[in-house]
Amino acid sequence: MGVLNMTPDSFSDGGRFNSFKKALKKxxxxxxxxxxxxxxxxxxxxxxxxxxxxxxxLSRVKKILEIFKKKFSKxxxxxxxxxxxxxxxxxxxxxxxxxxxxxxKFDSQSYNSIKNKKLWKVIxxxxxxxxxxxxxxxxxxxxxxxxxxxxxxxxKFKTDKYKKKLILDPGIGFGKNLKHNLMILNKISIFHSLxxxxxxxxxxxxxxxxxxxxxDTKERIGGTLSSIIFxxxxxxxxxxxxxxxxxxxxxxxxxxxxxx
Length: 260
Prior knowledge:
- The protein is built from 9 helices and 8 strands.
- The protein is an alpha/beta fold and 260 residues long.
- The strands form 2 sheets. Strands 1-2-3-4-5-6 form a 6-stranded parallel β-sheet. The chain has a two-stranded parallel ribbon with strand order 7-8.
- α8 (221-232) crosses α9.
- The longest helix is centred in the first third of the chain and has 18 residues, at 54-71.
- It is globular and about 40 Å long.
């Protein structure tokens, strides 16, 4: 899953792809580099980010949503949004996945927007909001607390016509400190028992800096790839990344070595 942030303020690439022309070029590049899914967002959800008004967010992504399936019919379109207005427009333009970091809680109309729709819904865990999530996250047991959260949210879809089209994302860095993030990644295979595909987003995250310290780099490709290969070895199959080609290369080498 290649990331396209059409925002001026995302934590790693804010403002780099927030024009139609730049965004289209970036999508083309990520597909060429091996992306199967493109995740498009018009609002940053980095720690401390500000809420964007629904119409402002839609205006950032509108043109790309309108053209995406016409130009890239074989690529899955994922839309990263918390707003029902953007969800509705995305669904109208044949989005395959709705990826809401608030798990459809930010906007009271979100559930109605996705209910009984033939698309994948990401059940994403976040403690607090992007404005508060990193202030002092506390859990009884981070693995069991997220497991219970997933179980409860999955239950809400039991009467949904497409109840099997769910993807689980434990939300690395969303209301978690370093210890929490490491525990989740170390024990992530426990979530397989819930019976749904698992998505993780470790790309360029702060925990890489917290571990590597003086060996940190701007793109954090080494730390990103290491966390992805470890997760892949535990059966995770969907990775939300900024550096598609490097991750694709790493996974191809790792898979080839496993088969020898």
